[in-house]
């Protein structure tokens, strides 16, 4: 699963160039100091008769103690599920018959307990020898306890048939930051009253929501084959797991499609989708590869999804395990409650990421490719081998996250992979400011707490370190062993460790213990000196070792002498440790972890000259970026500004972007030349992200007129760049561009809508009030949080008597929207109006008092 931008927002709210010839050698540690444990202790030393007490300072990132969450006990094996379903669109019901084949796991059983949330159960029958027998059962609207006709042993499969109606909309609403709904089955525009969106039905099973639409044992350590017969109106296409084995027209004008998956998978990976889709066909090694989109996007679907066969080839070869499922399909759906979901052989993806116009593709290809790779890699890690419990979720998500780097490295090169590494490290470290958990968490409050930057971004970086430690050959050989040994079964972290140990012959408990089983990350201070033909490097681990380990860190240090690099492998094992490396003269640069492979916060002492040398001799993007970032506070120096001007011409776009960000508010002696360079980049760089950043940088120069640059950028082929021009004009509006900005009001781009909303919030008036109301339904859910607050800001600038409709819309969203970040955006907009509309105070208090989401209520308290 890849969670959405809204999920990211929610988490925030909570809270290679060619290398020169080199020599490789091994350094020995010297002058080691014992590991220190950071605690505060009483000022006075107690006597022998006094009790020893110590005060432990608990860091703010230490989560509360949560209950133990073991893997579900397997009492009964779910072997096969056959469903026959049809839909009542008006009531948003599923009318179904489920035939389940089960068997006691080990001990004899005379009953079976099934998950089934909010059903009307019509009958439950035992099916044997072509005959059916009614069975007694009890049902509490969450689970069905079925009394079997006798006791069955583990060698005796049996089949029961359940007739039922599923009513997911009548369940109590729930959800999380990553997965904003948990009702399993969703009817989109069921009555067709919204002319702006199609009618669709789709499902979302993770974590345990598929039991909202079919009876099952809804645990990740179950595996079943399946067959689903869907009866739908003739105009609709269907999609499910496995292959379409039959399609039959019915006398009443409907059609029944039967989808069958003959390989076993966990119940949460079962899916259905129904809608007016265009199906674009592709293939790979004789298997069908299909892309389902709304008809108006069929001409760009191949561009969006067209790398899928190449990804299948790349991943299959790297893993030594060919893509295992019967087919692979991807379907773009409306109003999805997450980002994307790796249902076995049939991935669902939110339409905002995949239903793109040619102009939108200019800016979004990178994000989309990463998502497609992520969900595809899940077909091995998550589907073929499945985490046995949600505590082990990184066995699914860390691998999927890491696939984004692997694909970027293969398709675009080492610099692109480094950029993924940098972004992922940053995302994890940002979350780590407010919480630090072990990757494998046996204690958590809710299952979906596991879907965070730890399981994804930290997990992917840990796999990167593991790959760098054992080497590529051993890494992929170990993954092959893990997959082939555990195929079609549930797994836990020890099985991954054993696969690596059996492959490499090395005991890797130390690595798995410190990175998977303990919380936190290293916080390192690195200094070096040179004397008597030796470089002395000191590495101090500054993290709070009361709650975080002292790490064992295999890492490379590189000494540069006259542009000759020498790599030396060291292993940091102490809290304070020094290493000595022979050097015939003072090095131009000593670089710790030049590959940037460590997941750590590193303070590395280097002079300005060393950082400049690092930039001009960098082996990779990360080294260039680091030099730019470290020197951004010295841009007034001619040598530094010269480096940044050089970076504006770098071959890799992210280096150019970093240089532009460092030049914000530049006040040095090269002002005119640098502004000229930035204007050139704004108008001519081949990468839209760089052009947009150049516009944002120009906007940081006060009292300067770049209106001509912004005006030209309004016509840019990229929505991102045009939006950046609007953003710049928001701060420095010009009369000559006002009409041209107004002419963009009917845009289909959500990015432009968001920029217009910000522009009008500060420069608009009553004339734009109807526009805000009218376009509200067109804003992507990811963008509503900011759009609503901009709407509130605009309303502070219009007469209170005109605000009624806007306030009503905001109140409805704050009370009823399914996504809580949208609720929060609406609430904050209302709160903005409180000073000029005191009558809103009881409304805000009522919204807060009736809100059930505790996180939202906490935010509301901060606002009042």
TrEMBL record:
One of its GO terms (cellular component) is cytoplasm. It comes from the Bacteria. It catalyses: Release of an N-terminal amino acid, Xaa-|-Yaa- from a peptide, amide or arylamide. Xaa is preferably Ala, but may be most amino acids including Pro (slow action). When a terminal hydrophobic residue is followed by a prolyl residue, the two may be released as an intact Xaa-Pro dipeptide. Keywords: Aminopeptidase, Hydrolase, Metal-binding, Metalloprotease, Protease, Signal, Zinc. Residues 307-515 form the Peptidase M1 membrane alanine aminopeptidase domain. The keyword NADP does not apply. Residues 1-21 form the signal peptide. Its EC number is 3.4.11.2. Its cofactor is Zn(2+). Gene3D superfamilies: Leucine-rich Repeat Variant, Neutral Protease Domain 2, tricorn interacting facor f3 domain. GO terms for molecular function: alanyl aminopeptidase activity; metalloaminopeptidase activity; peptide binding; zinc ion binding. SUPFAM superfamilies: ARM repeat (SSF48371), Leukotriene A4 hydrolase N-terminal domain (SSF63737), Metalloproteases ('zincins'), catalytic domain (SSF55486). GO terms for biological process: peptide catabolic process; proteolysis. Residues 82-269 form the Aminopeptidase N-like N-terminal domain. Pfam families: Peptidase_M1, Peptidase_M1_N. Residues 24-44 are annotated as: Disordered. PANTHER family: PROTEASE M1 ZINC METALLOPROTEASE, PUROMYCIN-SENSITIVE AMINOPEPTIDASE-RELATED. Belongs to the peptidase M1 family. This is Aminopeptidase N. It comes from Hymenobacter elongatus.
